């Protein structure tokens, strides 16, 4: 699949060159999403072992500003999949040193994106990336719990607006999924707060 970072860089370069052709970009990123998902499920981090910070930043920069929500969702999935691989205990130092960048992108998507579908996908990827106990050190280093707590009230407001019919119809159709994401977010915060390496042994999330 991904044999080296040159292949990966070429894909990112081509995406940036056809940024105005959103249908093509969505098609390419959908393929990348499927590929990285398979690699993540197989815990196969080797294809990204030489992924340098500039390469990561190219992805993040484009994935943060592309106007089409479906493409942003694809980037959330791609970066979340690579992020989960980067934090594996057996991952090499080149990819693992970018773990905080992957995490920050997901946190920004979950807290700042205007489309609730992107927010929901970003939260799911955060849960996937930090579900294992060996991620506690990075959780503490990036203040994951405190950052996630800030998302809870904002997410409740967005859900309230959806219920009142004040959001796009496509977001209204996502209400059951978003409700589940909110519940999982609160549970995830409570779980991570109880981990021994994290501050504040008790949850104060309503």
Structural features, described:
This protein is mainly α. It contains 11 helices and no strands. It has helices at 5-17, 22-41, 53-65, 69-86, 93-96, 99-112, 116-129, 136-141, 144-163, 169-172, 175-193. The N and C termini lie far apart (44 Å). Mean pLDDT is 84; it is low at 198-206.
Q: What radius of gyration results from the CA coordinates?
A: 17 Å
Query: What value does the average pLDDT take?
Result: 84
Low-confidence stretches: 198-206
| Strand composition percent | under 5%
Category by helix and strand content: mainly alpha
Gross morphology is: globular
Number of helices: 11
State the end-to-end distance. 44 Å
Biggest sheet descriptor: none
Q: What's the count of strands?
A: 0
Q: What is the ordering of alpha helices and beta strands? A: HHHHHHHHHHH
Q: Portion of residues in helices?
A: over 70%
Question: How would you summarize this macromolecular structure in one to three sentences?
Answer:
With 206 residues, the protein is an all-alpha fold.
Question: What keywords describe this structure?
Answer:
about 0% strand; mainly alpha; globular; disordered C terminus; about 210 residues
